[in-house]
Amino acid sequence: MSGAYGDKLGDSVGVKSPPTIEARLLQTADFMTTHLAWEERDSEAATRIGREDAFLVFLQRRAIPANPYWIDGKPVDMKPLDRGQFLLLDLHQEHQSIVRAAVDCLAFYVPRASLDLIAEENETRRPITLRASFGDPIDDPVIWHLGECLLPALHQGPAINRLFIDHVSLAMVTHLAARHGEAAAWPTPRRSALAAWQERRAKDMLLANMDGKIGLEELARNCGLSRAHFARAFKATTGLTPMRWLFAQRIERAKSLLLNSALPIDEIAHYCGFADQSHFTRAFSGAVGDTPGAWRRSRKF
Questions:
Q1: How far apart, in whole angstroms, are the C-alpha atoms of residue 207 and residue 250?
Q2: Are 20 and 7 spatial neighbours (Cβ–Cβ below 8 Å)?
Q3: Based on the domain organization, do 134 and 112 belong to the same domain?
Q4: What's the CATH code of the domain at 154?
Q5: pTM of this prediction?
Q6: In whole angstroms, what separates CA 32 from the centre of its chain?
Q7: Do residues 266 and 277 touch, judged by C-beta distance below 8 A?
Q8: Which domain holds residue 292?
Q9: pLDDT tens digits along 23-76
């Protein structure tokens, strides 16, 4: 599915052009996140989600009451959902509901091809089939926290950090497969480290893309590894995920420029790959405990 699925999903629930991000897993398989929100409606709104070769996770960001619900035209006992709970829909079936309550949710579109890729990379049997919830809410703090990590990126537009999206999306699909899949026992991942040339190449590529607009797929391909194997091997080698390692390098470069140049803070933010000065200030303060300006002044005088 292309990025148009977000608009298609929005149309099905009466929300025009919801913010959508797309993380490439394969050239023909996407993981997609859509933020859907509306206030309580004067009349009941009928929603219909058609068939796809995929699964859909509806993660609720606010509690909603039970609503009439049908799967392939048959009524299903839909239970109320609390904030943080989700439904897991098998899109081989058609889903319909009537909703009047206010809604704020994240929808994760997971094609079966993405699950096949995860199975292949983790050397488990294929295909992986997720266990549909059939109206029963699911509690999973990992899905909740990953979803909340993705939410700000939905509204960043061109400033989106591809490495961050790939990292969180890979974690999301892998967790869904391991925790909610019907595959055989999930294998223990191999913990091998990167070869010296792979480590050099990966670090050089990351440093050449300080803004994070490079994906795990490209990094892994240049090291001759799958994404999952590369991500595990990079962490085994450096102690950090590629995303956290790059963030640490950005902060160190920022410190050097703050101390050894007269560049204004907004230019330093740009040179270190941050979206803008505000983003840089928040990130630097979180990592160092002080704003860039205050940190610079305290070390120059």
A1: 9
A2: yes
A3: yes
A4: 2.60.120.10
A5: 0.79
A6: 8
A7: yes
A8: 244-300
A9: 544 333 467 888 888 887 766 667 888 898 999 999 999 999 998 999 999 999
